Amino acid sequence: MPRFALLEHIGTPTYKPGAHYDLLLEAVAGDGMWAWELTSNPCDCGAGRRENIPARRLPDHRTLYLDYEGPISGDRGNVRRIAAGEYRLSDSESEDTADWISIEILGPAWQARIWLPLVLTPVDDVARVAQILNQSNEEASFCDPVK
To answer: How are beta strands 3-12 and 78-89 bridged, if at all?
Structure first.
């Protein structure tokens, strides 16, 4: 089963100041890794709740980022893994279109169904959203940093 990682990415004063979250999915076929930038931590939406989070489809990343934590080259900040595990493609649902992908996150610390935009998004356009439906039964925080 393919793997995923959710990274907290802290930018620098000159590169995306503040924090955002990178959701990385190991490609089902072929090399590389699909990537999305999310404006907030999808784990914070709470058990059984659906939330729309602005998301931007990024160019494919190298798979080394599934396991990497630390500084990013080119003074682009630092990343810290928040959650990791496996995922699977979901069956088509009414929300799916040719421009979207539906996945199920199957991590030990985060379980969710997510609808993500497939189309690469311009740098300054985060109008598309990721629909996150957290499926954990716990009411407390269930997306603790992976140790």
So the answer is: antiparallel
Q: Which helix (H) or strand (E) holds 139?
A: none
Q: What is the CA radius of gyration of the chain?
A: 14
What is the distance between the alpha carbons of residues 77 and 8, in angstroms, rounded to a whole number? Answer: 10
Helix, coil or strand: residue 33 = strand
- Encode pLDDT of 45-81 as tens digits: 666 667 788 888 888 888 889 999 999 999 999 999 9
Residue whose C-alpha is closest to residue 118's, from 55, 64, 54: 55
Name residues whose C-beta falls within 8 Å of residue 73's C-beta, 6 or more positions apart in sequence.
none
Residues in the chain, overall count: 147
Token digits for 104?
Answer: 């199920």
pLDDT tens for each residue of 72-115: 999 999 999 999 999 998 765 544 456 778 888 888 888 888 88
- Contact (CB, 8 A) for 54 and 37: no
pTM score: 0.79
Q: What is the mean pLDDT of residues 116-145?
A: 52
Token look-up 């058990």 returns 47
The H or E element spanning position 88 is strand 78-89
Q: How far does CA 146 lie from the centroid of its chain?
A: 15
